[in-house]
Amino acid sequence: MKQKNQIIFWILVVVLLTLVFGISYKSFLQAFYFVSFLFPVILGTSRFFNYYLVPRYLMKKNYLKFGLYSIYTIIISMYLEMMVIYLVFMLLANYQYKNMTPVTTNIFVLALIMYGIVFLNAFILLIKIYFDNQKNLHVLEAEKEIKGKGYILVRANRKTVKILFDDIEYLESMGDYVKIHTSLQRKVITHEKISILSKRLPDDFIQIHRSYIVNRNKIQSFSKEQLTLMDAVLPISRTFKQKVFHTLNRK
Fold first, then answer.
1. Which end of the chain, N or C, is less surrounded by CB atoms within 10 Å?
2. Is 0.85 topped by the overall pTM?
3. What is the pLDDT of residues 153-171, one digit of tens each?
4. Helix 28-48 to helix 3-25 angle, to the nearest 10 degrees?
């Protein structure tokens, strides 16, 4: 969940627990104090379970370690709950057991409440992951469809310009602009970053420098430091050298 959504979720948890325990305490102020003691245990358990155990072990199908560490987590969290009960006994009940309510002294009930919240948080996170994956899938499908058309559409001079991939020799970064050099002796300047345009190009285009992406079908010759196109000689940077050589030698 995003930071804002997390904050809203946990505020709702605090409010709901205060209402639930307020009925038992017959005092929402006392219930709020109790929840203030219990909340760090719930939050810590949820964060550890959902952001550490699940992605590190469950998602990687390491079920043995996930089960083992989950048991450890339950034991430790219940021990922390006992400490909370003891603190409440000292600070809120003034060492008078009669001032404690049955709900707040039952560690198993508190454990059920806590893990109900933990699993609710896990369910919400799984829903978010599902929708994020669906969104990414649609984006990838859209990009694949665009690449399969054989051309790219860019904005230039307040118009949408269609450029065939086969006509492009190379792209040159100019800060927030990109100059597209074509074999038709035409140069198209678009207000986009080269890193964004690279995602819309097929595999025939390779980046040889942070400022250059070339159509490898247009390359006439290459060395360790540079490559030659019909109308340009472009440098190969150290960052991309290994990948460029691997790609070109595989052609």
1. C
2. no
3. 899 888 999 898 889 999 9
4. 140
